[in-house]
Amino acid sequence: MAEQITQNILVIGPSWVGDMVMSQSLYKCLKENNPDCQITVMAPHWTRPLLDRMPEVDASIDMEIGHGELRLAARRKLGKSLRTALFTQAIVLPLSFKSALVPYHANIQVRTGWRGEWRNLLLNDCRPPQNEQFPLMVQRFAALAYPEISSPPQQIPHPKLVTSQANVDASISKFSLVTSDKILAICPGAEFGEAKQWPSEYYAELSNSMLQQGWQVWIFGSANDELITESILADIDDRHRGHCHNLAGRTSLAEAIDLMSLVDVVVSNDSGLMHVASALEKPVVGIYGSTSPDFTPPLAEKVKLLATDIECRPCFKRKCPYGHLRCLTELKPALAIESVESFSASE
Q1: By residue range, what is the domain housing residue 235?
Q2: What confidence tens digit (pLDDT) does each residue in 228-243 have?
Q3: Domain with 175 in it: what CATH number?
Q4: Whole-prediction pTM
Q5: Residues 243 and 127 in one domain
Q6: Cα(43)–Cα(24) distance, integer angstroms
Q7: Which of 13, 146, 182, 208 could share a disulfide with 150, CB 3.0–4.6 Å?
């Protein structure tokens, strides 16, 4: 039996939370193919809490060049600095021309990625898109773990983030939380735009319903979600306000991941945190407005997707072109309440 060659793989990772979560399926496939391979992921520094919770990733390198910045000289310098690492292959997940520059200047022997933006000048394993064969983003990521003539397995391993008890306990203590009651996590933010954001009054109605049933509610999000979280809190019943904890903008991404690992159900807009919840194997209620789950669905075992079938969606717009936001307003809170209760009843 021939000795398997140890691979030293550099992955140029995505710059969005949800995409980075889904990239773990690629790392899992690489390790299944060759358990001794070394995987290093280059990505923006803020993604490190995600990479630190992926056992398949052996090392990470901060991409210090901002997302969207070309900076040819800086990319050339960074690539040259990696030549001594002796990477045997680079896998480039973003589809941009600039994302393939670092592996090219690093003189990595095999440079793999999907074709796009003249990347055939930089990638020597540049594959034509196979969108019909791989309709999901996670399938397109995982397919790059295999030779071009091969197909990925029918059952692609789902992302699975791993938390440590010490980190979880530290976060509980820091925010003075208790876990004796059932916990509903809501993720009401949407960096993409208002056309992905379920109304605050709907989140408040959902929260009040579950609080009345003895649940806690933990609100997750970034500092940019302050306006909607304040609107939700303003509508929370005073009798139950002590069981509703606003963590949006207060936690780091690492702390948000560790705390979300404790909740019972997650209700989220189509966002990065929805994919984090899925990778923590939580029951997820995903709310879709202008976007569609057809390309990047939550990859959890227990999922309920809420979406309307009105004629103008999905439009993938940041703002409603018609100003009515029916794709969101017609998704009444009762639908989410029923979904959460059904998950609870099935336990």
Answers
A1: 165-345
A2: 999 999 999 999 999 9
A3: 3.40.50.2000
A4: 0.94
A5: no
A6: 13
A7: 146
